[in-house]
Amino acid sequence: MFKVIKKSKKDSSRIVKFSTKSGVIQTPFFMPDATRGYIKSLSKKDLGDVGMGPMVVNTYHLFLAPGMKIIKKVSGIHKFMDWDKPLLSDSGGYQVFSLIHKNPKMGKITDNGVVFRSPLDGSLHNITPEKSIQIQFDLGVDMMVCFDDPPPNDCGKQKIKAAVERTIEWAKRCKAEYNKQIKKRNLIGKNKPLIFGVIQGGPFIDLRKYCAEELVKIGFHGYGFGARHVDKKGKFMSEVLKKTASFIPEDSLRFALGVGAPEDIVRCASYGWDMFDCVKPTREARHGRIYLGVKSHKYKVINITNAKFRNDFKSVDESCDCELCRNYSRSYLHHLFKMNENLGQRLASIHNLKFYLDLINRIKKI
Description:
By secondary structure, the protein is α/β, with parallel strands linked by helices. Helices cover 41% and strands 19% of the residues. The protein is built from 14 helices and 16 strands. The chain has helices at 44-50, 59-64, 68-73, 77-81, 93-102, 129-139, 157-184, 205-218, 238-246, 262-271, 280-286, 323-327, 330-338, 342-363, and strands spanning 2-7, 14-20, 23-26, 29-32, 55-58, 87-90, 107-109, 114-117, 124-127, 143-145, 194-199, 222-225, 253-256, 275-278, 289-292, 300-303. It has an eight-stranded parallel sheet. Strands 1-2-3 form a three-stranded antiparallel sheet, with no helix packed on it. A three-stranded antiparallel sheet has the order 7-8-9. Helix 6 packs across helix 7. The two termini are 22 Å apart.
């Protein structure tokens, strides 16, 4: 099932409902990154209490640890991490390519795939488009992403064009392997995972358009915005994201990979993007950076480790009803962080995820 429920009259935002084997999802939605099969310091109950739905796991990281033999023994990542709601697997391409771009000694990129050394133990591995899809089927996720070539935005148009061509060729191979695995595993109806192509092209709108058009010819359930969404100066690429969304058919999902700052999610939703993921809310929380004020349509970030919060006995956010804000003061949270107590990171993570879910619910009021 894929159904556009509502469209905004003032911009390109929309609400879509679609089905996965683990449940129905309504867009727009945000997925925290449970990269290695967990979100640091948070239990299943914590995530359930905050209202968490779909999450992202990472093919590259799970392939390296605990490894596919372990995950296959329990019939997939859902059972391994005890999560019965939808999961999307990132292909791992961004992580592998980042590893090699930062240190060429860690691997080599060819037209066939990528050979790389594990940063965990130095062991040598090979991932091809076909293998990435096979791993994602073994994970048993609801949504999977094609293996792509995500170059840095500052590497020049010719190199980015080459990456676009490779991404398109790999997408063809990924789709062929996807069809092969569907048949091999006898998957029918809602048991079939959704598959996403990834639109590359860096900051160049013409390359993004070309890549999108070629991927649409192959045919996917959805299309993602690949590589970084900021330019080489760190500026958010608003026009590129807006145009790229317009290149994706109305009857397909639009996934803004890695878009995670609240203001970026708000504007990308207005461009027509449906799905978002990022480590930002929980990573920031672990460093004491707390998001406040989603109910007022404006938000701010406080650093709870600042001395001024030592004697601040107000609720962390009076407009929030999460575990932290119902029960503890800013002073207490400040104390937990100063004592390096893990409870502080847990409570802050719960709050920031609740902030993001409240933000998404506000965006849905179109």
